[in-house]
Amino acid sequence: MADDKIKVTILPTGTMHADLTWLLIDPSRMASASNPDKQRDWVEVPTHAVYIEHPDGKKLLWDTGVPRNWVERWGPTGLDQFFPVDATTEDMWLDSRLKQLGVEAGEIDYLLLSHLHLDHAANAQFWNGTDTTILVDEAEKDGAFSFDGYNKGAHIKSDYDGLELSTISEDTELLPGITLLRTPGHTWGTLSLQVDLADSGTMIFASDSLYRSESYGPPAIAAGIVYDTVAWFESVEKIRSIQQKADATIVFGHDPVQFTELKLGPGNSYT
Protein backbone atom coordinates (compact mmCIF):
# COMPACT_ATOMS: atom_id res chain seq x y z
CA MET A 1 0.00 0.00 0.00
CA ALA A 2 1.26 3.42 -0.87
CA ASP A 3 1.46 5.70 2.17
CA ASP A 4 -0.86 8.21 0.52
CA LYS A 5 -3.79 5.77 0.31
CA ILE A 6 -6.49 4.87 2.77
CA LYS A 7 -6.39 1.15 3.59
CA VAL A 8 -9.55 -0.71 4.63
CA THR A 9 -9.67 -4.18 6.16
CA ILE A 10 -13.02 -5.90 6.74
CA LEU A 11 -12.87 -8.17 9.78
CA PRO A 12 -15.45 -10.93 10.33
CA THR A 13 -16.21 -10.72 14.07
CA GLY A 14 -18.56 -13.63 14.70
CA THR A 15 -21.61 -15.21 13.08
CA MET A 16 -25.06 -15.56 14.56
CA HIS A 17 -28.14 -17.37 13.28
CA ALA A 18 -31.64 -15.92 13.29
CA ASP A 19 -35.03 -16.17 11.67
CA LEU A 20 -34.83 -14.17 8.46
CA THR A 21 -37.98 -12.20 9.34
CA TRP A 22 -35.96 -10.26 11.92
CA LEU A 23 -33.91 -8.99 8.99
CA LEU A 24 -36.38 -8.96 6.12
CA ILE A 25 -40.15 -8.55 6.18
CA ASP A 26 -40.70 -10.20 2.81
CA PRO A 27 -44.27 -11.42 2.20
CA SER A 28 -43.07 -14.02 -0.29
CA ARG A 29 -41.22 -15.79 2.52
CA MET A 30 -44.08 -15.75 5.03
CA ALA A 31 -46.77 -18.29 5.82
CA SER A 32 -50.17 -17.65 4.25
CA ALA A 33 -53.66 -19.13 4.31
CA SER A 34 -52.77 -21.30 1.33
CA ASN A 35 -49.43 -22.31 2.87
CA PRO A 36 -49.76 -22.02 6.66
CA ASP A 37 -46.86 -24.39 7.33
CA LYS A 38 -44.32 -22.60 5.18
CA GLN A 39 -40.80 -23.42 6.31
CA ARG A 40 -39.15 -20.62 8.25
CA ASP A 41 -35.74 -19.40 7.10
CA TRP A 42 -33.04 -19.90 9.76
CA VAL A 43 -30.11 -17.97 8.29
CA GLU A 44 -26.53 -17.03 9.00
CA VAL A 45 -26.09 -13.48 10.31
CA PRO A 46 -22.40 -12.56 10.04
CA THR A 47 -21.02 -9.54 11.86
CA HIS A 48 -18.00 -7.47 10.98
CA ALA A 49 -15.80 -4.60 12.01
CA VAL A 50 -13.77 -2.43 9.66
CA TYR A 51 -10.18 -1.41 10.40
CA ILE A 52 -9.05 1.72 8.57
CA GLU A 53 -5.53 3.06 8.26
CA HIS A 54 -5.44 6.66 7.06
CA PRO A 55 -2.40 8.16 5.31
CA ASP A 56 -2.22 10.88 7.97
CA GLY A 57 -1.30 8.15 10.45
CA LYS A 58 -4.69 7.78 12.13
CA LYS A 59 -6.20 4.38 12.86
CA LEU A 60 -9.96 3.89 12.96
CA LEU A 61 -12.29 1.03 13.79
CA TRP A 62 -15.91 0.77 12.64
CA ASP A 63 -18.02 -1.32 15.06
CA THR A 64 -16.86 -4.07 17.42
CA GLY A 65 -18.81 -7.27 16.68
CA VAL A 66 -20.30 -9.74 19.16
CA PRO A 67 -18.92 -10.59 22.63
CA ARG A 68 -17.23 -13.82 23.67
CA ASN A 69 -19.57 -14.09 26.67
CA TRP A 70 -22.73 -13.54 24.65
CA VAL A 71 -24.72 -16.20 26.53
CA GLU A 72 -24.16 -14.44 29.84
CA ARG A 73 -24.54 -10.93 28.47
CA TRP A 74 -27.54 -11.55 26.25
CA GLY A 75 -29.36 -14.04 28.46
CA PRO A 76 -31.22 -11.41 30.53
CA THR A 77 -32.61 -9.89 27.32
CA GLY A 78 -33.92 -13.18 25.91
CA LEU A 79 -32.24 -12.35 22.61
CA ASP A 80 -29.70 -15.14 23.08
CA GLN A 81 -32.50 -17.47 21.96
CA PHE A 82 -33.21 -15.50 18.79
CA PHE A 83 -29.63 -14.57 17.79
CA PRO A 84 -27.30 -17.32 19.03
CA VAL A 85 -23.63 -16.73 18.21
CA ASP A 86 -23.20 -20.33 17.16
CA ALA A 87 -20.97 -20.16 14.08
CA THR A 88 -17.91 -18.33 15.36
CA THR A 89 -14.29 -19.46 15.43
CA GLU A 90 -11.59 -18.37 17.87
CA ASP A 91 -9.87 -16.17 15.32
CA MET A 92 -13.01 -14.06 14.79
CA TRP A 93 -13.49 -12.56 18.26
CA LEU A 94 -12.49 -8.90 18.29
CA ASP A 95 -9.64 -9.33 20.75
CA SER A 96 -8.22 -11.99 18.40
CA ARG A 97 -8.61 -9.64 15.45
CA LEU A 98 -6.72 -6.84 17.20
CA LYS A 99 -3.86 -9.23 17.95
CA GLN A 100 -3.79 -10.34 14.32
CA LEU A 101 -3.51 -6.70 13.28
CA GLY A 102 -0.82 -6.06 15.88
CA VAL A 103 -2.85 -3.21 17.32
CA GLU A 104 -3.74 -2.47 20.95
CA ALA A 105 -7.19 -1.01 21.61
CA GLY A 106 -5.69 2.25 22.84
CA GLU A 107 -3.73 2.68 19.61
CA ILE A 108 -6.99 3.17 17.72
CA ASP A 109 -7.54 6.91 17.29
CA TYR A 110 -11.26 6.71 16.49
CA LEU A 111 -13.79 4.04 17.39
CA LEU A 112 -16.84 4.65 15.20
CA LEU A 113 -20.01 2.95 16.41
CA SER A 114 -22.76 2.66 13.82
CA HIS A 115 -25.21 2.26 16.71
CA LEU A 116 -25.23 0.80 20.19
CA HIS A 117 -26.95 -2.57 19.66
CA LEU A 118 -25.53 -5.68 21.31
CA ASP A 119 -23.92 -7.03 18.13
CA HIS A 120 -22.19 -3.78 17.19
CA ALA A 121 -21.11 -2.11 20.44
CA ALA A 122 -20.66 -5.26 22.55
CA ASN A 123 -16.89 -4.88 22.84
CA ALA A 124 -16.79 -1.10 23.21
CA GLN A 125 -15.64 -1.43 26.82
CA PHE A 126 -12.23 -2.48 25.45
CA TRP A 127 -11.76 1.27 25.01
CA ASN A 128 -12.76 2.28 28.53
CA GLY A 129 -9.93 4.35 29.99
CA THR A 130 -8.12 4.83 26.67
CA ASP A 131 -7.55 8.07 24.80
CA THR A 132 -9.50 6.77 21.78
CA THR A 133 -12.25 9.10 20.57
CA ILE A 134 -15.50 7.11 20.51
CA LEU A 135 -18.05 8.56 18.10
CA VAL A 136 -21.80 7.90 17.90
CA ASP A 137 -24.80 9.78 16.60
CA GLU A 138 -26.23 12.35 19.01
CA ALA A 139 -29.73 10.86 18.83
CA GLU A 140 -28.34 7.36 19.41
CA LYS A 141 -26.56 8.44 22.58
CA ASP A 142 -29.68 10.19 23.87
CA GLY A 143 -31.87 7.16 23.19
CA ALA A 144 -29.39 4.66 24.55
CA PHE A 145 -29.42 6.34 27.96
CA SER A 146 -33.15 7.08 27.98
CA PHE A 147 -34.20 3.93 29.84
CA ASP A 148 -33.71 2.35 33.23
CA GLY A 149 -32.81 -1.28 33.75
CA TYR A 150 -30.54 -3.75 31.99
CA ASN A 151 -31.67 -3.31 28.40
CA LYS A 152 -34.19 -1.85 26.01
CA GLY A 153 -34.55 -4.31 23.18
CA ALA A 154 -31.08 -4.88 21.74
CA HIS A 155 -29.55 -1.96 23.62
CA ILE A 156 -27.68 -3.31 26.66
CA LYS A 157 -26.65 -0.36 28.76
CA SER A 158 -23.55 -2.02 30.22
CA ASP A 159 -22.10 -2.30 26.69
CA TYR A 160 -21.53 1.45 26.60
CA ASP A 161 -22.24 2.83 30.08
CA GLY A 162 -19.24 4.64 31.53
CA LEU A 163 -17.66 5.37 28.16
CA GLU A 164 -16.96 8.90 27.02
CA LEU A 165 -19.08 9.05 23.88
CA SER A 166 -18.51 11.97 21.51
CA THR A 167 -21.36 12.71 19.11
CA ILE A 168 -22.15 14.06 15.67
CA SER A 169 -25.38 15.79 14.70
CA GLU A 170 -24.90 16.01 10.94
CA ASP A 171 -23.06 14.19 8.17
CA THR A 172 -19.42 14.62 9.13
CA GLU A 173 -16.20 14.23 7.15
CA LEU A 174 -14.00 13.00 9.96
CA LEU A 175 -10.82 12.82 7.91
CA PRO A 176 -10.23 13.36 4.19
CA GLY A 177 -12.05 10.52 2.46
CA ILE A 178 -13.84 9.27 5.58
CA THR A 179 -17.40 10.50 6.17
CA LEU A 180 -19.98 9.49 8.75
CA LEU A 181 -23.51 9.55 7.31
CA ARG A 182 -26.61 9.93 9.45
CA THR A 183 -28.98 7.13 8.41
CA PRO A 184 -31.51 6.73 11.24
CA GLY A 185 -34.47 4.37 11.30
CA HIS A 186 -33.06 1.06 12.46
CA THR A 187 -32.35 2.85 15.74
CA TRP A 188 -32.61 6.44 16.93
CA GLY A 189 -29.28 7.34 15.36
CA THR A 190 -27.84 4.63 13.14
CA LEU A 191 -24.82 5.75 11.13
CA SER A 192 -23.31 4.57 7.86
CA LEU A 193 -19.68 5.06 6.88
CA GLN A 194 -18.46 6.34 3.51
CA VAL A 195 -14.82 5.71 2.61
CA ASP A 196 -13.41 7.08 -0.66
CA LEU A 197 -10.61 4.78 -1.78
CA ALA A 198 -8.00 5.51 -4.45
CA ASP A 199 -8.10 2.12 -6.17
CA SER A 200 -11.37 0.49 -5.08
CA GLY A 201 -13.56 3.57 -5.35
CA THR A 202 -16.11 4.62 -2.76
CA MET A 203 -17.35 2.06 -0.26
CA ILE A 204 -20.37 2.62 1.96
CA PHE A 205 -20.57 0.49 5.08
CA ALA A 206 -24.29 0.56 5.79
CA SER A 207 -24.38 -1.41 9.04
CA ASP A 208 -28.01 -2.11 9.97
CA SER A 209 -29.31 0.66 7.77
CA LEU A 210 -29.21 -2.16 5.21
CA TYR A 211 -29.05 -5.68 6.59
CA ARG A 212 -28.85 -7.50 3.24
CA SER A 213 -28.95 -6.92 -0.50
CA GLU A 214 -32.68 -7.69 -0.48
CA SER A 215 -33.16 -4.87 2.02
CA TYR A 216 -31.79 -2.40 -0.52
CA GLY A 217 -33.96 -3.48 -3.44
CA PRO A 218 -35.39 -1.61 -5.15
CA PRO A 219 -37.92 -1.75 -3.73
CA ALA A 220 -36.44 -1.44 -0.25
CA ILE A 221 -37.75 -4.11 2.13
CA ALA A 222 -37.93 -3.26 5.83
CA ALA A 223 -37.02 -5.52 8.73
CA GLY A 224 -38.50 -6.87 11.94
CA ILE A 225 -36.19 -4.64 13.98
CA VAL A 226 -36.79 -1.05 12.85
CA TYR A 227 -37.36 1.75 15.33
CA ASP A 228 -38.78 4.24 12.81
CA THR A 229 -39.89 2.75 9.50
CA VAL A 230 -40.45 6.10 7.77
CA ALA A 231 -36.97 7.30 8.73
CA TRP A 232 -35.53 3.94 7.65
CA PHE A 233 -36.98 4.22 4.12
CA GLU A 234 -35.69 7.80 3.87
CA SER A 235 -32.21 6.66 4.94
CA VAL A 236 -32.18 3.89 2.35
CA GLU A 237 -32.93 6.41 -0.39
CA LYS A 238 -30.25 8.73 0.99
CA ILE A 239 -27.74 5.90 0.72
CA ARG A 240 -29.01 5.08 -2.76
CA SER A 241 -28.52 8.69 -3.89
CA ILE A 242 -24.94 8.76 -2.60
CA GLN A 243 -24.24 5.32 -4.03
CA GLN A 244 -25.43 6.31 -7.49
CA LYS A 245 -23.52 9.59 -7.55
CA ALA A 246 -20.28 8.00 -6.39
CA ASP A 247 -20.76 4.62 -8.10
CA ALA A 248 -20.11 3.22 -4.64
CA THR A 249 -19.94 -0.34 -3.39
CA ILE A 250 -22.34 -0.91 -0.51
CA VAL A 251 -21.30 -3.33 2.20
CA PHE A 252 -24.43 -4.59 3.93
CA GLY A 253 -24.57 -5.12 7.66
CA HIS A 254 -25.30 -8.85 7.83
CA ASP A 255 -25.37 -10.35 4.33
CA PRO A 256 -23.96 -13.92 4.27
CA VAL A 257 -23.90 -14.09 0.46
CA GLN A 258 -22.04 -10.82 0.04
CA PHE A 259 -19.65 -11.94 2.77
CA THR A 260 -18.43 -14.72 0.49
CA GLU A 261 -17.65 -12.16 -2.21
CA LEU A 262 -15.65 -9.64 -0.17
CA LYS A 263 -11.97 -9.58 0.65
CA LEU A 264 -11.91 -10.42 4.35
CA GLY A 265 -9.45 -10.46 7.20
CA PRO A 266 -5.95 -9.11 7.80
CA GLY A 267 -3.85 -9.10 4.64
CA ASN A 268 -6.88 -8.80 2.35
CA SER A 269 -7.36 -5.07 2.27
CA TYR A 270 -8.98 -2.53 -0.02
CA THR A 271 -7.10 0.61 -1.02
TrEMBL record:
Cited InterPro entries: MBL_superfamily_lactonases (IPR051013), Metallo-B-lactamas (IPR001279), RibonucZ/Hydroxyglut_hydro (IPR036866)
SUPFAM superfamilies: Metallo-hydrolase/oxidoreductase
The Metallo-beta-lactamase domain, residue ranges: 46-254
Highest taxon of source: Bacteria
Cofactor: Zn(2+)
Keyword line: Hydrolase, Metal-binding, Zinc
Family, as annotated: Belongs to the metallo-beta-lactamase superfamily.
Annotated protein name in UniProt: Glyoxylase-like metal-dependent hydrolase (Beta-lactamase superfamily II)
Gene source species: Pseudonocardia parietis
